[in-house]
Each structure stands twice: as structure tokens, then as C-alpha cells.
Design brief:
There is one protein chain. The protein has 504 residues and is an alpha+beta fold. The chain has 4 domains: 133 residues, PAS domain (Beta-Lactamase); 102 residues, PAS domain (Beta-Lactamase); 80 residues, Helix Hairpins (Orthogonal Bundle), CATH 1.10.287; 145 residues, Histidine kinase-like ATPase, C-terminal domain (Heat Shock Protein 90, 2-Layer Sandwich), CATH 3.30.565.10. Helices cover 43% and strands 24% of the residues. The strands form 4 sheets. It has a 5-stranded antiparallel sheet with strand order 2-1-5-4-3, with helices on both faces. Strands 7-6-10-9-8 form a 5-stranded antiparallel sheet, with helices on both faces. Strands 12-14-15-17-16 form a 5-stranded mixed sheet. Helix 15 runs antiparallel to helix 16. The N terminus is likely disordered.
Length: 504
């Protein structure tokens, strides 16, 4: 409980000279007028004896309304501050900072300075009070604090990474999204601590960009890799903008960062897709032109031969050989067009598997017989080992396509060398192996060759779209199976296909 100070016991009996007071305080009033400060005087009973224009503005009361009245009657809130007046009457100078005042509908804050007023003999006869109205300043501070809190809340809720720097270039603010991303504290990032997370390959470029933009007071953008809390480096797009105070003074920078890792990955994939498209068009034009040129030349030769004696052409067998060449080139064109159609079907998800029950061993032998002319032309010897039936439910035409692609691949990369095919039945699947003794595949390329338009050798050395193994893999996967390769450079390759006995 607060002790009520009994003012009467300490008040001197002397009174202010009301005729001298305005003259004595007039000079002080003229000095305080430029500050808008209030100046009042109280006698020993705390009655108002002087009231300047500043107080009229602060309190909203004229001198006529307060002169001669006790201060506590005019301002009841002074009851809690009466001790300051008592101390001033006792001869002490007192400062009361940030005091809240309330009167009628006015509510504000003030600083009060209470000084004892003495007569000619040095006796305390009253109190002089200098009042500074802090209401507008306090309101501005509260508004600024509220603005800062709102900014802090919005910044922390923003999905982007935000930072701020001072005029010296040192960063003093990072929002919660930044701290969550890096997994570091504000103290860790303060100043230039944030730069510790930049990838070493990007560090110097990043610092140079920042310093140059800072010195020029211009907007900047830069991309760099920033270490995330899990240790992964993510690509960041950082945009910084200079900020200024209301009077136009440079106040530093504010910046925002977004994670563009996925965007950069997509850009890379898009660039690769464009390169693949261009390569494909180049290969396709070459591959399609070759059989067409051969076919055109052969037809022209046949036409010239037909202009001679037909009986002689038939006996020489030239017509039969020309027809065979034309047929081979037409079949090659059909195969190329089918590959292109398969690309379209796979891209649109329209590759359908229609299973029927058959023996994989029978299909392998049939494909081997059908491809014998191509095998002979390549100077290869093909052997098939299928000692036992391997009956399952698969799409005959699609599995035939897989076998043909693997054999064609062996002929292309191992001409003049033997090819071995075998079929075995395992617990829940049938296993097909196609082994060649060709150039082999480097370990780093063995996964890549099953992708679209990919190959382990320069396209200028070997013809084809680079689609055969990719199509084979897609067909096998559509059956719920798998395809792998076991290879070594210079020692050939073995492709292993496993198909579940019942297609997926």
C-alpha cells in the first residue's frame, strides 16, 4: 500500500509574490516558447500562480481556467505524483520522466521538471514546473513499433528468404524463413556470417556483385548456391534493393531470395531435350535417307535393265537380286518408322500390352530364323540354347520386338563375332540372355544406354536412332519385368531380360 504523503507538514508558510512572478518567469517563458514547452508555477499550497501559452496547448485549458486553483483539483492524476511536488518544496530539483496524464478525453505522456522557487532571502516559496508534451513522440514510437512488429510478422510468414543490411553493408536482419532454411541463428548470420553458407565456387562472384551494387546504390540480382540445413546446396536467386530514410539518406539494402533449384533443373532438362530433338532430327534424316537412296538407285538400275532384253535379265538373276535389295531397304524403312511410332506411343502412354500364353524358347528360335539373313550379312554366328520350355503370359509381338532389338544391337556393335542366346526358367520368371563379343560398354554408360536417344558411342560411327534399348526397356517394364547389362570395354556385353511368367 502506498503511503499518503501529508504535504501540509512540510509546506513553508511563506507565499509567492504574485506581482513579481510574471516578470521573473517571463524570460524563461520566452526561451521555452520555441520548444512548445509548458511553464507553470505553484505556491506552497500547490495553487497555480503562473500558466504560459505552452500549457494552454498541452492541457487544453486557458490561464483564466486554472489560476488560483489547486493543481490536484485541476489534474486528479497528479495525486500519484504529489511526492515530486513535496520534494521540490523541500528544496530538491526533481525530474519525472514519461509520466502518463489523463484529463477529459485527452490521454498522453509528458516529462516534468520540478524546481523549487525561492524569494530574495533564498527561502522556498513555491515550485516552478517545466512540462514537455511527449504524446506525439510516444504515439510515433508506438506506431513505429507496431509497424516493425507487423513487418516482422509478415517477413517471418513470407515463403521467401528476406534480409536487410545497414549502410555499412553488414546484414542485421534475416527472417524466420531464412533461418529455417539455413538452420542457423540470427547471431550466426549477423554481419557477414551468412556468407559462410555460400558454395565456395560461387563465393567470390557473389561478393563482387554485392559490393559493386552496394557502392553504386543500384538494384542487383545474383544466383548462387546456399547450403541448406540438411547440408544440400540449393540454387538461390537473390534480389537486393537499396532503401532510404524519409529524408533521402541511404539506409542500406533489403533483399529477397527464392529457391530456384527445381527451375534450374528444369531448364537443364529443357536444354537437353532441345539438343536431343536436334540430334534426333539429324539422325532421323540420315537414317531415313540412306535406305531411300539405295532403294531409288536400285529401282533406276532395274528400269534401265528392263529396257534391254528381258529374257537375259531373268537368266542372269539380276532382277531377283535387285528385288531382294529393294525388299531389304523397304523392311528397314518399315522398322525405322515403327521405332518412331513406338516413341509416340510411349510418350503419350498408349503402348498397350496384350498377353497371350506362349513358349519364350519358341519365340527366340523363330526370331533367330527370321533374322538369319541379317546375321549372315554381318558375318556373325548365332547360337540358341533353350533346353526347356519357358511358358508364360506375354505380348508376343512386343517381346519379339525386344529380342529383335537386342540381336540387332549385337550385330551393330559386334560384326563378324559370335552371338549367344539362351532361355532359362527361374522360380517366377523366364530369363533371356543375349551375349555378344563386340566393343563392350563402359561402366559409367551402362545405365545411360537405356534412356531415349542415348548411346555409348559417337553417333557418327554407328547408325540408328538410339531408341532400340530404350524401347526394349519400356516394353519389359510394361510386362513387370527388368532388363540389365553386364559388360566390359573390349570384351562384349550380355543383356539379361527377366519376364514374370504372368505379365503385369
Amino acid at each position: 500500500m502506498k503511503t499518503k504523503v501529508r504535504v501540509e507538514a512540510h509546506r513553508p508558510r511563506r507565499q509567492l509574490d504574485a506581482t513579481r512572478l510574471p516578470t521573473m518567469l517571463g524570460f524563461a517563458d520566452s526561451l521555452l516558447r520555441s520548444e512548445g514547452a509548458g511553464l507553470v508555477a505553484l505556491d506552497g499550497d500547490f495553487r497555480f500562480t503562473f500558466w504560459n501559452g505552452g500549457m494552454e496547448r498541452i492541457a487544453g485549458l486557458s490561464a483564466d481556467q486554472v489560476m488560483g486553483r489547486r493543481a490536484i483539483d485541476v489534474f486528479p492524476f497528479l495525486g500519484e505524483q504529489e511526492v515530486h511536488l513535496v520534494r521540490a518544496l523541500a528544496g530538491e530539483t526533481v525530474a519525472a520522466k514519461r509520466q502518463r496524464f489523463t484529463r477529459a478525453e485527452r490521454d498522453g505522456f509528458l516529462d516534468g521538471y520540478f524546481t523549487p522557487f525561492r524569494d530574495e532571502k533564498g527561502n522556498v516559496v513555491g515550485v516552478v514546473c517545466v512540462i514537455h508534451d511527449l504524446t506525439a513522440q510516444k504515439l510515433a514510437e508506438e506506431q513505429l513499433g507496431e509497424t516493425e512488429r507487423r513487418f516482422q510478422n509478415m517477413a517471418d510468414a513470407a515463403p521467401v528468404l528476406l534480409w536487410m543490411s545497414e549502410p555499412d553493408g553488414l546484414c542485421t536482419f534475416f527472417n524466420q524463413s531464412w533461418l529455417d532454411f539455413t538452420g542457423r541463428t540470427l547471431e550466426d548470420e549477423w554481419g557477414v556470417g551468412w556468407a559462410a553458407g555460400i558454395h565456395f565456387e560461387d563465393f567470390q562472384r557473389c561478393m563482387d556483385t554485392y559490393v559493386m551494387a552496394f557502392n553504386a546504390r543500384r538494384v542487383f540480382e545474383m544466383e548462387y548456391r546456399l547450403r541448406r540445413h540438411d547440408g544440400e546446396y540449393r540454387w538461390i536467386l537473390d534480389r537486393g534493393t537499396p532503401r532510404y530514410t524519409p529524408d533521402g539518406s541511404f539506409a542500406g539494402y533489403i533483399g529477397s531470395c527464392i529457391d530456384i533449384t527445381d527451375r534450374k533443373r528444369m531448364e537443364g532438362e529443357l536444354r537437353k531435350a532441345v539438343r536431343d530433338r536436334d540430334d534426333f532430327l539429324s539422325i532421323a534424316s540420315h537414317e531415313l535417307r540412306t535406305p531411300l537412296t539405295t532403294l531409288s538407285l536400285e529401282i533406276q538400275r532395274l528400269k534401265r535393265s528392263l529396257g534391254k532384253r528381258s529374257q537375259g535379265i531373268l537368266k542372269s538373276g539380276r532382277l531377283e537380286r535387285g528385288a531382294e535389295i529393294a525388299e531389304n531397304q523397304i523392311n528397314r524403312l518399315i522398322m525405322l518408322v515403327e521405332e518412331l511410332l513406338d516413341v509416340s506411343r510411349l510418350a503419350s502412354g498408349r503402348l498397350r500390352v496384350e498377353p497371350t500364353v506362349f513358349d519364350l524358347s519358341d519365340l527366340v528360335r523363330e526370331v533367330a530364323n527370321r533374322l538369319q539373313p541379317s546375321i549372315d550379312a554381318a558375318g556373325c554366328a548365332l547360337s540358341v540354347e533353350a533346353p526347356a520350355p519357358a511358358v508364360g503370359s506375354w505380348d508376343w509381338l512386343r517381346v519379339e520386338q525386344v529380342i529383335a532389338n537386342l540381336v540387332s544391337n549385337a550385330l551393330k556393335y559386334g560384326p563378324g563375332k559370335p552371338i549367344e542366346m539362351s532361355v532359362t526358367r527361374e522360380t517366377e520368371c523366364a530369363c533371356l540372355r543375349v551375349k555378344d563379343y563386340g566393343i563392350g560398354i563402359a561402366p559409367q554408360d551402362q545405365r545411360r544406354i537405356f534412356h531415349r536417344f542415348e548411346r555409348a558411342v559417337p553417333m557418327s560411327h554407328y547408325r540408328g536412332f538410339g531408341l532400340g534399348l530404350w524401347i526394349a526397356r519400356e516394353i519389359v517394364v510394361a510386362h513387370g519385368g527388368s532388363i540389365d547389362v553386364d559388360s566390359e570395354l573390349g570384351r562384349g556385353s550380355t543383356f539379361i531380360v527377366r519376364l514374370p511368367l504372368r505379365a503385369a
